[in-house]
């Protein structure tokens, strides 16, 4: 390096040597280029702490959750370090200056206070650092609860599936609340204990303003304690019927059988009449078929006997099936009723279809088909099979 180059580097621009500009540029450039690589390394280090809780297949999920907050922290620190290279020069740049009278001095002396660009950078650094620190903590908590919920699903523990997401949401709110008050104290120099004490006086007004939200929050805890239903239950509230997917702070999500997602306020779930079909343990099916006139008494009894045996032999039905000759009309009316156990390994529609095909075969094998007309009435899960016409 020749003397001319050295002198050029030592030259000053706005009171700062070119070497300082070069160092700051290198710090920022390296961070921008290598932030994903550094993020992956830090993610692996974090994962070693939680490897006893999570499996190896979860590492990609863990990395994806932590990538953005870690990159944010790295960029925040690198920019702060880079800008600190100009600390002396930035402190001389005054953004605003304020003059006020000191009440403790009788001469009414003016007291000056200034706010430099370096102080602004310090405040922005702490704000960004706290934000990404809380963001990182929230992502770690989300990952832990993701693993625990996944294990609860595998273990078919529906109570934990219901409790864990709500507990996660509570912790996330507490973390962001902690971050908010930390920012007020560290960045804006607010007396947080005094502020919290002052909120006690305004708490009544806030409570009235957030009355509905508080009612829904309390209702969510009442649902967890009273357990009128758990995640995965088939419930009906008013005109909404489907499976409960998630219980949140404010509302419960219900997936209807046409796959629509409905959110109902939690207070409605404890204030209105709620039906939990999953607690029945069984669903009743009623079916009425018609046999033709002219069949012998023995044929009709055989049909009834075969139908009962068909239904009772099905592994998805419970209790004894009922079948009997009920009435005379346009045809001989045979009333059939049976129960399907809930929950079942296969959908109820498939169980009904299997039994219906069996009845169809019995009628043509022993009864020469169906009489006219034939009607079907089903009582289960809020849907109807297509009417059979003979």
Chain-wise SSE layout:
Blueprint: H1 3-10, E1 12-13, E2 16-17, H2 18-50, H3 59-84, H4 87-91, E3 94-101, E4 110-116, H5 117-154, H6 158-186, H7 192-209, H8 211-226, E5 234-237, E6 240-247, E7 251-256, E8 261-265, H9 266-271, E9 274-276, E10 282-291, H10 297-313, E11 317-328, E12 332-341, H11 348-366
Antiparallel strand pairs: 1-2, 3-4, 5-6, 5-9, 6-7, 7-8, 10-12, 11-12
Please sum up the structure shown:
By secondary structure, this protein is an alpha+beta fold.
What does this protein structure show overall?
The chain has 390 residues and is of the alpha+beta class. The protein has 3 domains: 3-188, no CATH class; 211-278, Roll (SH3 type barrels); 281-366, Alpha-Beta Plaits. It is built from 11 helices and 12 strands. The strands form 4 sheets. Strands 8-7-6-5-9 form a 5-stranded antiparallel β-sheet. The protein has a 3-stranded antiparallel β-sheet with strand order 10-12-11, covered by helices on one side. A two-stranded antiparallel ribbon has the order 1-2. Helix 2 runs antiparallel to helix 3. The chain is elongated and about 115 Å long.
Helical segment tally?
Answer: 11
Largest sheet: 5 strands, antiparallel
Structural class: alpha+beta
Question: What's the rounded overall pLDDT mean?
Answer: 80
Beta-strand proportion: 15-25%
Sketch the topology as an H/E string, one letter per element.
Answer: HEEHHHEEHHHHEEEEHEEHEEH
Instruction: Give the helix level as a range of percent.
Output: 55-70%
How many β-strand runs? 12
User: How many domains comprise the coordinates?
Assistant: 3
Q: In terms of per-residue confidence, which ranges show pLDDT below 50 for 5 or more consecutive residues?
A: 3-10, 374-390
């Amino acid at each position: 390096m020749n003397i001319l180059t050295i002198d050029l580097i030592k030259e000053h621009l706005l009171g700062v040597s070119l070497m300082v500009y070069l160092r700051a540029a290198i710090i920022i450039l390296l961070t921008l280029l290598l932030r994903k690589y550094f993020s992956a390394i830090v993610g692996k280090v974090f994962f070693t702490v939680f490897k006893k809780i999570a499996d190896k297949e979860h590492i990609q999920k863990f990395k994806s959750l932590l990538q953005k907050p870690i990159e944010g922290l790295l960029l925040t620190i690198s920019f702060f370090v880079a800008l600190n290279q100009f600390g002396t020069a930035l402190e001389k740049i005054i953004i605003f200056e304020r003059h006020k009278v000191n009440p403790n001095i009788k001469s009414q002396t003016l007291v000056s206070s200034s706010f430099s660009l370096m102080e602004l950078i310090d405040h922005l650094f702490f704000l960004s650092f706290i934000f990404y620190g809380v963001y990182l903590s929230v992502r770690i908590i989300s990952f832990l609860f993701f693993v625990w919920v996944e294990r609860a699903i595998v273990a078919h523990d529906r109570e934990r599936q219901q409790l864990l997401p709500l507990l996660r949401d509570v912790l996330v709110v507490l973390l962001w609340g902690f971050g908010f008050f930390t920012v007020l104290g560290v960045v804006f120099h607010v007396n947080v204990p005094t502020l919290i004490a002052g909120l006690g006086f305004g708490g009544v007004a806030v409570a009235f303003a957030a009355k509905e939200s508080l009612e829904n929050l309390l209702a969510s805890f009442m649902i967890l304690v009273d357990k009128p239903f758990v995640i995965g239950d088939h419930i009906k509230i008013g005109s909404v019927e489907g499976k409960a997917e998630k219980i949140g702070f404010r509302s419960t999500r219900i997936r209807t059988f046409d796959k629509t997602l409905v959110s109902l306020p939690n207070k409605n779930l404890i204030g209105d009449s709620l039906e939990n079909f999953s607690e029945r343990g069984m669903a009743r099916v009623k079916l009425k078929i018609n046999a033709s006139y002219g069949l012998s008494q023995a044929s009709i009894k055989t049909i009834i006997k075969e139908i009962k045996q068909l239904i009772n032999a099905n592994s998805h039905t419970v209790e004894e099936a009922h079948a009997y000759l009920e009435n005379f009309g346009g045809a001989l009316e045979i009333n059939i009723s049976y129960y399907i156990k809930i929950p079942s390994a296969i959908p109820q529609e498939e169980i009904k279809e299997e039994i219906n095909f069996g009845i169809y075969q019995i009628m043509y094998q022993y009864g020469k088909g169906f009489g006219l007309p034939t009607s079907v009435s089903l009582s289960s899960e809020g849907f109807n099979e297509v009417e059979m016409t003979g």
